[in-house]
Amino acid sequence: MLLEVKNLDSGYGDVQVLTNVSIKVDAGEIVSIVGANGAGKSTLIRAIMGTLPAKAGEIHFDGRRIDGVEPHMIARAGIAQVMEGRRLFGHMPVEDNLLIGGDILRDKARQRENLEWIYGMFPRLKERRHQLARSFSGGEQQMLAIGRALMTSPKLLLLDEPSIGLAPIMVKFIFDKLPAVRDRGITILLVEQDVHRSLNMSSRGYVLEHGEIVLSGTGQELLGNERLRAAYLGI
Ligand code: ATP
């Protein structure tokens, strides 16, 4: 088991958003958390990353308990996050944005290798490596945000709504890269509103409603589930 969230309660101040959330992610999996707007998906990511406190429950990662651990230590332990909204350094060239991601690694040869791998996956970033990130389209920014997270050689990549605001062709392009990321040994926890696309590529998934996990199963089981089909796919 790479990540285990056990009976987690979390939220903002007195506002409890997540109630008794339990999920497991094995090394080598792509796992999806799906749910409507406001279901608590981003809140779960924040709790795992340590930017929101766990009010109850436990979070374990790679053999260590991480709830209560500082976010930068969680990043060092091997979790990288791609945030909704992307948070790039717009005034810096693309390559510097990537190298900042890789700064967490002491190993310069590894950084170089990661950079070449990322450029291979997203040639557009290589073509535009000297341009400022703020000149980028939404899709290019998403590639860069993913690239920056991958520069840290994470064990687990947390992807928060990678499809948001992107044209369908760009969403497909980005999703099509995820198996290659997994095959490099990087486990993926994907939080998405695009239920069909994300469950289709996931080994397992969880459905979050009003801060609680209401369904779980393999990607295909969930896609065949009548309740999920009615609520999220309009079938
Ligand atoms: P979305 O797709 O809209 O991001 P989500 O499933 O990720 O949805 P969250 O962003 O986790 O949902 O929000 C869950 C609940 O927490 C919502 O009711 C939201 O209003 C509330 N919430 C989110 N951020 C904050 C905050 N900073 N302070 C207080 N409440 C918040």
Summarize the structure.
The protein is an alpha/beta fold and 235 residues long.
Provide a descriptive summary of the structure in words.
- It is a single chain.
- By secondary structure, this protein is an alpha/beta fold.
- It folds into 2 domains: 1-78 and 154-235, Rossmann fold, CATH 3.40.50; 82-152, no CATH class.
- It is built from 10 helices and 10 strands.
- The chain has helices at 41-49, 71-77, 94-102, 108-121, 123-127, 138-150, 168-183, 195-200, 219-224, 226-233, and strands spanning 3-12, 15-25, 30-34, 54-61, 64-65, 79-82, 156-160, 187-192, 204-209, 212-218.
- The strands form 2 sheets. Strands 6-7-8-3-9-10 form a 6-stranded mixed beta sheet, sandwiched between helices. It has a 4-stranded antiparallel beta sheet with strand order 2-1-4-5, covered by helices on one side.
- A hairpin with a 2-residue loop joins strand 4 (54-61) and strand 5.
- The protein starts with a strand and ends with a helix.
- The chain binds adenosine-5'-triphosphate.
- Residues 12, 15, 17, 35, 37-43, 161, 193 line the site of adenosine-5'-triphosphate.
